Amino acid sequence: MIPIGKLKQNLFFNMNLGDLIEVMKMAATLQFNQFRVHQEPAENFYTLLNSAYSSLPLDVSTNSFFNPPENLPGLIVLVSSDGGFLGELTIFLINRLLDTKRKQDEIVVLGQQGINYLNEAKISFISFESPGDKLDTQRIGLLRDYLAKRYFKQEISRVTVIYSRFINITAQQTEVENLLPLERKEDVVRKGKEILIEPNIKSVLEGWIKLWLDFRFYHIFWSSKLAEYAARTMHLEGSVQELTKINQHLRMEYFKYLHGLSDKLIRELYAARVVRRNN
Predict the structure, then answer these.
(1) CA atoms of 268 and 142, how far apart (whole Å)
(2) Rounded-to-integer distance, Cα 10 and Cα 237, Å
(3) How many CA atoms lie within 13 A of 3 on its CB side?
(4) What are the tens digits of pLDDT across the range 7-45?
(5) Residue 18's domain spans which residues?
(6) Cα separation of 215 and 109, whole Å?
(7) Which whole number is the average pLDDT over 213-218?
(8) What is the CATH number of the domain that holds 114?
(9) CA atoms within 13 A on the CB side of 209
């Protein structure tokens, strides 16, 4: 049996730990609400961007954007978190990465959690700095330029992103999204005036791809960050509930021990009085 002093010490420690976790949960909930309000991407711009793409008159010079050589390696971008208290979220991402990766594929990782896991597994990768809570567009631009440059030079055949998609506060889904190659659009019958393309359709399409990657990555990082905050909030809530159950058990053991001591003391006092009376 645990000594009463140790029981009391564990009980007070867990109570203080529970208060700390409760504060962390409130902070994570506040971050979640603030981030969701102020950082939401503009869906209207995405619609207009796709509309502009559907109007581009494609020709033979753009075939490489749709049909890259199949013998080239693919590139997988893993979007993970820099912080902890995420439960199994990072493990789900890593498992999805290992299931998706082909033998010759390369890996790009954002987020310290993903870097730590891959280092432990001794899997080679290239790391980029995460955009952070403010979704730094310069950091997103560095990733975009790296991917676009390698794709335009036909060094890679595809770009796939693995991230946690936010569904709601209690649910996140590990998502695999293929960004490149582009899907070849259907032939569109254009009416009205002919579209003038300068300097050429290939350069215009390259510029459109970079702009589209900018928006897609911003949306991916936004959804991933929301999923991170939500997962952290729910993980901390689970920790609070688990700690409450442990404290209830410790409290029961503590008072059971006190009751046992009191009962023993009463019986000893009563026995002493009986002995004195008989004498």
Answers:
(1) 79
(2) 21
(3) 3
(4) 677 767 777 777 778 888 888 888 888 887 766 777 777
(5) 4-24+238-278
(6) 19
(7) 92
(8) 3.40.1380.10
(9) 25
